[in-house]
Amino acid sequence: MGQDARTGPEKRGTTAPEVQGRGVGPDYSGPGVEAELRGAGPDTGTGSGAGDYETLYTARASSGGDRTGRVTTDDGQLDLEVRAPEQLGGPGGAPNAEQLLAAAYAACFHSSLELIAGRSGVDTSGARVDTAVELRKRGKGDDYAIAVDVTVHLPEAERDTAARLAGQAQEHCPYFKAVRGNVDVGVQLA
């Protein structure tokens, strides 16, 4: 594994000191990032009951057949057979829920990294975000949890700058905000 992007004794899922109190623009990333970078985007409105947030995009997906079935999106862009992995007693041979989460988390975090780095004028050529999603179990009951490890590759940035940007991207990533306090998330540099 690479070096942890946080400094000091921070625990996973906490805010690194170098990130606290920094203002880097609107507090969102992911859907709408491209529009913001182009200077286009929806007009500000009253929101949809989620605090002061305005809905920029809604993704809809359906799953049938438990962990062996199909997952589809309403627009037909995603239509996958899914199967439980062999490691969990399934047949394997198709994507599984943990892989889908890993891919989605990597894409969302990468969008946040591009937005934050772009605002700082940092070259993101060759930037990449790798994720590892672990399904964990405690005891003999049905006590399951998810953990996410994020590895940031920002080869055109100095190491200190890359660490700062990774911390800021984490704080602005909507997926991190959604799981904060409930999922063990670690961010490190490659």
UniProtKB/TrEMBL annotation:
It comes from the Bacteria. Pfam families: OsmC. Belongs to the OsmC/Ohr family. This is Ohr subfamily peroxiredoxin. It comes from Streptosporangium becharense. One of its GO terms (biological process) is response to oxidative stress. Transmembrane segments: none annotated. Residues 1-76 are annotated as: Disordered.
